[in-house]
Amino acid sequence: MAGRDYSVVEKHLAELAAEGEARLQAGTSALDVVEFTVAEMESCGMYVAGKGSAPNTAGYVELDASIMDGASREAGAVAAIVGVVNPISVARGVLRATPHVMLAGQGALAFAKLEGFELVEDPDNYYVLPVGIYEHEIHEQKHGTVGAVALDTHGGLAAATSTGGTLGKLEGRIGDSPLIGPGTWADDDVAISFTGTGEHIIRSGGAISIAHKVAAGATVATAIDEVLAEIERLGGDAGVIVATADGRIEMAYNSDGMKRAAVSSSSPVYATTFD
């Protein structure tokens, strides 16, 4: 993988980070910014989320997403939803318009239709990978997830995560990405989004395990290292992005690489995969 050229994706990530920074500086909430950023990644087709997702073994695309506001602990998620352009926005809708945290399957789609979210008009021609095709330069890994974390000018933290799931997954399979706790978490101290093999992330506790370790006094870096080590011990690989209430950014992984970008008031935009 180290010989691959990820410059196009890295450029796109850098542009999204810069746009997110501009919105935060203008006073936009962290929750709005993480939704915007993830929705852009879902719509472009360059990632294993939204348009870039591959079909399951039954031949159609199922999508998962979740979003969480740190200050209020409000959260929304959709799992195994079919035929929506931006599952992260539907997840935000669940947060905003229902008393629930997660909607799944046909119920999630019915909610998306009721609320007027954009639908995929022609699934056979919308997604990057046609049915039955699992080899593509963008999809060289068996799994992939997009996520964003942010700290706004009001001190609010938020996190969002979205995925099309593992390539060739069984119909109805749900990983960590739509799960508040393992895949996505935000509170007063940290905002966290995970990527990797979802089954192992779930079994390790994932994002909320990091948050609990930080709350107990561990440094963010130590907490990340311990959870990634547990995921590896269980047989999986993962990557994680974390924003903290004091403006620090941590990004780590135990896989071959992780496409990522970051920016803060103390450091310019940068994007990388292996460094």
Can you offer a commentary on this structure?
Helix content is 33%, strand content 23%. It is α+β, with helices and mostly antiparallel strands and 275 residues long. The protein has a single domain, classed as Glutamine Phosphoribosylpyrophosphate, subunit 1, domain 1, CATH 3.60.20.30. Strands 3-2-1-5-4 form a five-stranded mixed beta sheet. A four-stranded antiparallel beta sheet has the order 6-7-8-9. The chain has a two-stranded antiparallel ribbon with strand order 10-11. Helix 1 packs antiparallel against helix 2, helix 6 packs across helix 8 and helix 7 packs across helix 8. The two termini are 13 Å apart.
Protein traits:
275 residues; alpha+beta; Glutamine Phosphoribosylpyrophosphate, subunit 1, domain 1; 4-stranded antiparallel sheet; 33% helix
List the helices and strands and how they pair.
Blueprint: H1 7-25, H2 30-44, E1 63-69, E2 75-81, H3 87-97, E3 102-104, H4 105-115, H5 123-126, E4 146-151, E5 157-163, E6 184-186, E7 190-196, H6 198-204, H7 207-215, H8 220-233, E8 238-244, E9 249-253, E10 260-264, E11 267-272
Parallel strand pairs: 2-3
Antiparallel strand pairs: 1-2, 1-5, 4-5, 6-7, 7-8, 8-9, 10-11
Helix pairs in contact: 1-2, 2-3, 6-8, 7-8
Q: Can you give me a brief rundown of this structure?
A:
The chain has 275 residues and is α+β, with helices and mostly antiparallel strands.
